[in-house]
Design brief:
By secondary structure, the chain is mainly beta. The chain has 2 domains: 9-231 and 299-335 and 380-419 and 468-607 and 647-687 and 741-898, Maltoporin, Chain A (Beta Barrel), CATH 2.40.170; 244-289 and 342-377 and 422-453, no CATH class. It is built from 16 helices and 46 strands. The strands form 7 sheets. It has a 22-stranded antiparallel β-barrel. Strands 10, 11, 12, 13, 17, 18, 19 and 22 form an 8-stranded mixed sheet that branches. Helix 1 runs antiparallel to helix 2 (24-36), helix 14 (618-624) runs parallel beside helix 15 and helix 15 packs across helix 16. The protein starts with 8 loop residues before the first helix and ends with a strand.
Length: 900
C-alpha cells in the first residue's frame, strides 16, 4: 500500500500514527512529541540532498515495515509487486515454467525488470546470475528479511542523473533499520483453504547499544510447501482435448499410428489410473489427460535462511564508522514437465525399423509410478546471496558539509540441478543401433514389448541424471558523496551534493561440462558465458531557492562503461520546480534524461540453445481453422528449440522522463496527490518472446505479409521443417532469438493517492488510504518504418492497464484491524483473443497487543476465496502470471519482545 507523507510540523503527528501506532493513546503521545520537535533532515530516494520533506519535485511512494504486515503482504517482494505503479507482467517463483523460478522481480510502468534500479540502503546489489527469460539482467527481491525493513521508497521515473544506468522506469530503495534494542521473536504459520501451499516463518531480530557502538541483527528462516496443479480441482486434468500421448508408434511414411493392442489396459494404473486407449484421426495411442497436472507445480517449494547484521561506531563527534552484511541461502524446487522420450530425438526423431521394414517414430511418457514418485523429476536451485558494505560518514572538518565514503561488494551464486535423459536412452528402448541407411537415418531392430513394459525406478535411474550448472554474478564499488550549503541567495541557501563512483561487475554461466561430452541425450552444445565491465561516474545536484515559495532542482551525472574492448559514456540531467502558492498546496514538475547500458547478458551471451517447456504453433492452428483453446498444436510439451546469442555492438538505451503533479494537504488528517508521468525510450534493447514471435509469424503469414520490416525479421527467426520433409513437415525446427536495438517505446499515465484520518473520542482512530495508477498510453515501434503499435490494445501484452489499492484501518486500544482491497484492471486472456474483466481481491488482518511484549495477529488474503477462471488458452485454465490459483490463504503470527 502506498503512503505519501511529508515530515513537516503540521503532519508529523499523523505520520507517527500511521506508521507506528497500534493503540490510540500511544499514537496521540507520539503526535504531541512530534509536533514540538523540528522535522529531521532525511535523504529521500531520487536526491542525495537531505531535506525535511518526503514530498519533493518527484513523486516518491513509501512503504513502511508496518504496511508489509497490516496489508497482508508475505514479504518484501509481495509488497512491491502489489504496488499500483508495478503494472508490468513478470515471471517469478509462482509462474510455473520460467528461467528464474528461484527469483522474484517487478516491472515498474511495464518497462521490464531490467529498467527498475533496486538499491539496498542506497547501494547496488549483484544481479541475479541467471538472466530473466534467458535475456535480461535483474535484481532478485527474494532475499531481503522483512523484519529489518524500516521503509521502502519507490521513485517512478527517470533517475539516471542521480543513480546512473538502469533507472529509466524508476528506483526502489529498500532502507533497513539502523538501531534496535532487545530481541524480537516472530513466528508465522499459514496455509490455504483449498489445500497445499502452506508456509512457516521464524524471525529473530535484535540489537544493543554499547556506549558509542550500535548493533543490529536479524535471522529469518522460511519454509514454503509447493502447490501442485493436481491440488486444484479445476486444473487437475486436461478436458476437451486429446489426451497427452504416453505410448505411441507412428509409421512416418503414412503418418498413421500403429495400434498398441492391449498395452494401454496393461498400463491403465499409470498417472493415477487415468491411462486409456485413445483413437484419434491418425490412429490409436495410449494417453492420459493428467500428465501435465501431475508434473506441474504452480508454486515452487522453497527453503531459505536470511541473515543481516549492521554496526555503527561513533569514532568522534564528526565521524561514524559503519558496516553492514547480508547473507541469504535459498533452495527452490519445482516441476514443469515429466520425463518423456522420442526416438532419435537428436536427429530426425524417426528411425528405420528393420523388423517392420518401415520408418517409424516411437514415443514414451514415463509416469510417477515408474520412477518412484513425482518428486524424483523435480528441478532444484541452491542460491547464495551476500553483500558487504563498510565505510565512514560524518562532517568534513572545518565545514558544515556532510560526507560518506563507502566500499560495497555483492556476490550472488546459484547452482541448478535439472534432470535430463542420458545418451543411452535410445538403446534402452530400441536396442543396439545397427548403423544408418543411405540417407543417414539410424537403423534399429526393436522389440515392441520394450516400449510397452513399465519401467522400474532403477531402470529409470540408469537412463537419467542431473545436469548441474553453476552461475555467478558480482559487483564491487567505491563511492564518495558529499552534501552541504554552498552559498546564499536572497530566497535562501543553495544546497549541493556531489558523488564519485568507481566500480566493476561481472558474471559467469557454467553449464554441466558433460553436455558437450555426449553424456546426455543431446547434440546441441552448451557454452560457458562470462563477461565483466568497469564503470566510473561523477555527479552533482543542486537545490536552488528561486523565490520565497519556489525552489528549483538541477542534477547532472556522467557515467562511462568499459566492456568488450569498447568504452561508452553518457551524460544524464534532471531539472525540476517546486512551487507552494499556499502552505497546504505543492505544485511540482520535472524533466530528466536517462540511459541504460546494455545488459551484460545481451552483450556476452555465448551461443545458447535449449527448448521451451511448451509452445503454441499459432500459424498451424490458424491454417487448420482451430481456435487456440482446442487446437492440437497449442501448448505442445516439450516445446520448440531455440538458439540465442549476444551482441557486443548494442548501443545504450536513451530515455526521457517528464512529470507534473500536485500535493494538497489541507490538514494533518487529509492529503491527496495527483501526478502525471511520461517515459520514452529510444534504442530499446530487447529479445522478443518466443510466444510473441509465433503470434506475429502467424499474423504475417495469414496476411501474406512477408516483406514489411517486422514480418521479414519475424519469419526469418522461425525456422520450419520443409513441407516435403518425411517427418514433421512444416513443424517448427528452431526459433532464433538475439538482442537488437528496437526503434522506440513510450508510456504515460497518472497516479492518484489519498489519505483521510478520522479521530473519535470513543471509537478509536479510523484511517483510510487509497492509491490508483492508470496507464493512459503505451506505444512501441520495433523497427523504423513499422507502424506504431498500441500496446494497450495489443492482446499479446499481458501488463495491467490500471491497478487500485485501498485500505481501511481501525485502531482502538490494543487492537488494530485492517481491510485491504486490490482491484486489478483488464488484461488479455490466456488465448490472446479478448480482454478479461477487472478483478478485485480483499485481504483482512487483525493485530492485538496483549501487553508491551506480546503481539498476536491474524491475516487472511483473498478473503472470499476467488480464483479467476480462464479457459481461452486451454490448460491450466487460468491466466498464469496475472492471476493466482491459490485461493484463500491465512496466517497466524506471534511476536514476543525480550528486553526493555
Amino acid at each position: 500500500m502506498k503512503t505519501k507523507f511529508e515530515l513537516k510540523p503540521l503532519a508529523a503527528g499523523a505520520i507517527a500514527l500511521l506508521c507506528g501506532a497500534a493503540g490510540s493513546t500511544l499514537a496521540q503521545a507520539q503526535e504531541a512529541a512530534a509536533v514540538t520537535a523540528a522535522p529531521p533532515a532525511v535523504v529521500v530516494t531520487g536526491s542525495r540532498i537531505p531535506r525535511a520533506s518526503l514530498e519533493g519535485v518527484s513523486a516518491v511512494t513509501v512503504l513502511t515495515g508496518e504496511d508489509i504486515t497490516k496489508q497482508g503482504y508475505k514479504n518484501v517482494f509481495d509488497a512491491l509487486s502489489n504496488l499500483t505503479q508495478n503494472s508490468g507482467f513478470t515471471q517469478g517463483g509462482d509462474y510455473g515454467n520460467t528461467f528464474t523460478p528461484s527469483a522474484n522481480t517487478i516491472s515498474l510502468r511495464g518497462l521490464g525488470p531490467n529498467h527498475t534500479l533496486v538499491l539496498l540502503n542506497g547501494r547496488r546489489m549483484a544481479d541475479f546470475p541467471i538472466a530473466y527469460e534467458g535475456t535480461v539482467n535483474f535484481t532478485n527481491l527474494a532475499n531481503i528479511p522483512s523484519s529489518v525493513v524500516d521503509r521502502i521508497e519507490i521513485l517512478s521515473g527517470g533517475a539516471s542523473a542521480v543513480y546512473g544506468s538502469d533507472a529509466i522506469a524508476g528506483v526502489v530503495n529498500i532502507i533497513l533499520k539502523k538501531q534496535a534494542e532487545g530481541l524480537d521473536v516472530n513466528l508465522k504459520v499459514g496455509g490455504t483453504s483449498r489445500g497445499g501451499g502452506g508456509d512457516q516463518r521464524l524471525q529473530l531480530t535484535g540489537g544493543k547499544s554499547f556506549d558509542k557502538l550500535n548493533t543490529l541483527f536479524s535471522a529469518e528462516f522460511l519454509e514454503r510447501d509447493p502447490l501442485w496443479s493436481r491440488e486444484r480441482e479445476f486444473m487437475s486434468a486436461k478436458v476437451g482435448v486429446a489426451p497427452t500421448s504416453l505410448l505411441g508408434r507412428k509409421n512416418v511414411s503414412t503418418g498413421q499410428l500403429i495400434d498398441p493392442g492391449d498395452a494401454c489396459s496393461n498400463l491403465s494404473d499409470l498417472f493415477g489410473g487415468s491411462t486409456v486407449k485413445y483413437a484419434g484421426k491418425s490412429g490409436s495411442y495410449c494417453g492420459s489427460g493428467k500428465v501435465a497436472p501431475t508434473y506441474w507445480t504452480t508454486q515452487t517449494k522453497n527453503s531459505s535462511q536470511n541473515l543481516f547484521g549492521s554496526a555503527n561506531y561513533e569514532l568522534s563527534p564528526t565521524t561514524t564508522l559503519f558496516a553492514e552484511a547480508l547473507l541469504g541461502l535459498n533452495r527452490s524446487t519445482n516441476n514443469t514437465r515429466g520425463p518423456s522420450w522420442t526416438s532419435a530425438s537428436t536427429a530426425d526423431s524417426y528411425f528405420w525399423n528393420q523388423n517392420s521394414k518401415t520408418y517409424e517414430a516411437w514415443n514414451r511418457y514415463i509416469s510417477p509410478e515408474e520412477i518412484g514418485g513425482v518428486d524424483r523429476y523435480n528441478r532444484s536451485w541452491d542460491d547464495q546471496a551476500s553483500s558487504l558494505s563498510f565505510g565512514a560518514k560524518g562532517q568534513i572538518p572545518g565545514t558544515s558539509w556532510q560526507y560518506e565514503a563507502a566500499y560495497t561488494a555483492s556476490l550472488y551464486k546459484s547452482e541448478s540441478h535439472t534432470p535430463r535423459a542420458r545418451s543411452n536412452i535410445d538403446s534402452f528402448f530400441l536396442g543396439p543401433k545397427l548403423g544408418v541407411d543411405a540417407d543417414g537415418v539410424a537403423i534399429y531392430a526393436p522389440d515392441p514389448a520394450r516400449l510397452t513394459r513399465r519401467l522400474t525406478p532403477a531402470e529409470f535411474d540408469s537412463i537419467t541424471d542431473n545436469a548441474n550448472s553453476r552461475d555467478k554474478s558480482w559487483t564491487n564499488s567505491v563511492s564518495l558523496s558529499t552534501n552541504g550549503e554552498a552559498f546564499n541567495l536572497p530566497a535562501g541557501p543553495v544546497k549541493l551534493a556531489t558523488v564519485a563512483e568507481l566500480g566493476k561487475q561481472g558474471f559467469s554461466n557454467e553449464p554441466d561440462a558433460r553436455i558437450n561430452q555426449g553424456y546426455f541425450n543431446t547434440v546441441t552444445p552448451s557454452d560457458v558465458t562470462a563477461g565483466t565491465r568497469k564503470r566510473f561516474a561523477l555527479g552533482v545536484e543542486a537545490n536552488v531557492p528561486l523565490l520565497n515559495k519556489l525552489d528549483g532542482t538541477l542534477a547532472a551525472r556522467y557515467d562511462r562503461y568499459s566492456f568488450a574492448g569498447r568504452s561508452d559514456g553518457r551524460l544524464a540531467y534532471n531539472a525540476g520546480l517546486e512551487w507552494r502558492p499556499v502552505t497546504q498546496l505543492l505544485l511540482r514538475g520535472n524533466h530528466s534524461t536517462s540511459f541504460r547500458a546494455p545488459d551484460m547478458n545481451y552483450i556476452f551471451k555465448a551461443r545458447g540453445t535449449g527448448y521451451y517447456a511448451s509452445s503454441t504453433d499459432y500459424y498451424r492452428c490458424a491454417k487448420a481453422g482451430q481456435p487456440v483453446e482446442t487446437c492440437e498444436f497449442a501448448n505442445v510439451s516439450p516445446g520448440a528449440d531455440y538458439v540465442q546469442s549476444g551482441s557486443k555492438n548494442l548501443r545504450p538505451e536513451k530515455g526521457r522522463s517528464s512529470g507534473l503533479g500536485a500535493v494538497w494537504s489541507p490538514s494533518t488528517n487529509f492529503d491527496v496527490t495527483l501526478d502525471y508521468w511520461n517515459i520514452k525510450i529510444d534504442d530499446l534493447v530487447t529479445n522478443l518472446s518466443a510466444d510473441k514471435l509465433l503470434r506475429d509469424e502467424s499474423d504475417c503469414r495469414m496476411a501474406n505479409d512477408l516483406t514489411s520490416p517486422t514480418c521479414a525479421d519475424t519469419i526469418a527467426r522461425i525456422v520450419r521443417n520443409p513441407l516435403t520433409a518425411l517427418n514433421k513437415p512444416g513443424e517448427i525446427k528452431q526459433i532464433l532469438v538475439s538482442p537488437i536495438n528496437a526503434a522506440s517505446t513510450s508510456v504515460s499515465g497518472i497516479d492518484i493517492s489519498g489519505k483521510y484520518v478520522l479521530r473519535t473520542q470513543g471509537y478509536g482512530v479510523w484511517i483510510t488510504k487509497a492509491a490508483y495508477s492508470k496507464t493512459l498510453n503505451k506505444k512501441s515501434r520495433q523497427f523504423s518504418g513499422d507502424e506504431v503499435i498500441d500496446d494497450l490494445e495489443d492482446l499479446s501484452n499481458a501488463d495491467w492497464r490500471d491497478k487500485l489499492n485501498a485500505s481501511l484501518t481501525w485502531n482502538q486500544g490494543d487492537w488494530s484491524n485492517t481491510l485491504f482491497l486490490q482491484r486489478y484492471g483488464r488484461v488479455p486472456n490466456a488465448g490472446g483473443t479478448a480482454f478479461l474483466a477487472p478483478s478485485t481481491l480483499v485481504n483482512a488482518s487483525v493485530v492485538y497487543r496483549l501487553n508491551q511484549r506480546v503481539t498476536v495477529s491474524v491475516a487472511v488474503n483473498n478473503l472470499f476465496n476467488r480464483v479467476k477462471p480462464d479457459t481461452s488458452g486451454g490448460w491450466p485454465y487460468y491466466t498464469v502470471g496475472n492471476y493466482s490459483p491459490t485461493g484463500r490463504q491465512g496466517w497466524v503470527e506471534l511476536n514476543y519482545h525480550f528486553g526493555s
